[in-house]
Amino acid sequence: MKYIIVLGDGMADEPIEKLNGKTPLEYANTPIMDMLAPKSEIGLMKTVPDGMKPGSDTANLAVLGYNPKKYYSGRSPLEALSIGIDMENTDIAIRCNIVTLSDDELPYEQKKIIDHSSGEITTEEAAELIDAVKKDLENESYKFYVGTSYRHLTIWKNGRVTEFTQPHDILGKTIDKYLPSEPDFSYMMKRSFKILNEHPINIKRQEKGLNKANSLWFWGAGTKPKLDSFEKVNNKKGVMISAVDLLKGIAVGSKMKVINVDGADATLNTNYEGKAKACVDALLKDNFDFAYVHIEAPDEMGHQGNIENKIKSIEYLDKRVIKIIYEELKKSGEDFRLLITPDHPTPIYCRTHTSSPVPYLLYDNTNEQKNTWLYNEKEAQKSGNFIEKGYTFINKLFNN
Predict the structure, then answer these.
(1) What local confidence, expressed as pLDDT, does residue 400 receive?
(2) What is the pTM of this model?
(3) SS3 of 382, please?
(4) 2-72+226-397 belongs to which CATH class?
(5) What pLDDT, on the 0 to 100 scale, is given for residue 248?
(6) How many Cβ atoms sit within 10 Å of the Cβ of residue 100?
(7) Does the CA dihedral 184-185-189-192 come out positive or negative?
(8) CB within 8 Å of 205: residues ≥ 6 apart
(9) What are the residue ranges of CATH 3.40.720.10 in the chain?
(10) Which of 9, 283, 331, 381 lies most in the core, judged by the most C-beta atoms within 10 Å?
């Protein structure tokens, strides 16, 4: 038996008036999921425990079977694992976004945050900007590391966990109320604007009509993580297929194999087919038991408030990922179980994560169901199936 999780990050949503009261998942043209749904178990699962922030970190840990209340030590430390940083026990890892702030004459504190991803800036461009920041700001206490696209990392030597505000929670807002209480971090953010706003990379981006990547934004502080081995816990040899450092970091921490796919960049235009093929090859050629295929695009489109592209990202997931995996596994003759789920909702109306339960579809080619459900938020709720502790769902997938 082979096991697959296809994770549409932030795919769940709320009804939208422009879509005649439908959610993007409900509205999207998804023939493969529509075909699978009547043969599958449909339901809701709660991936974010009460009292915890709804993030891709906590939610993906839960989907992979790790109780976030036990294993979560912060988002950034997991990303540090992916980048290859060997953290000391006294280090604090902090996410360092390059964001777009309003380019006006107002003081830094009065600027607004326009875009948490700087127009999904390329890693190559961002690396130059981080290098410029390093030359000015790096010292014995603060070290800067390049990640992917707008997502980078700062290590605070002998630091302490402190509260920061997630940039995607305050899009369009004036930043004065959300600046860090730690003076060093407020200073570095303010200084970074002077370094980056007129940097040649940003002048070129402005000329092309792209958002400037003109300020650092710190958030997601945490300590060195300790995850149990996925294979030892589940007796399954697994692979992670994702373009996002967070997911790669979870895989490194849990001793899963990370597969990097050329052209996979966590954007709407990622290499969907390459991810699907990597999944099939890992299961059928390399004899892995389990594959986790993570698609970031629905989450990014939710943060952007882009209804059309969120729908498109779900349709791409259906036609360019799930279709390939399903058809290739079916053709191989291998028995398989396939879970399709978001990690959390990223509703268009608020452009950030929420803690609402997410719809799941669980298909088993050896035990096809006969029901009338479709796969979306409303149908999942009607089904009456509800998993209170999302981190236990992995046992259902593996039929333990």
Answers:
(1) 67
(2) 0.85
(3) helix
(4) alpha beta
(5) 95
(6) 28
(7) positive
(8) 119, 121, 125, 211, 212, 213
(9) 2-72+226-397
(10) 9
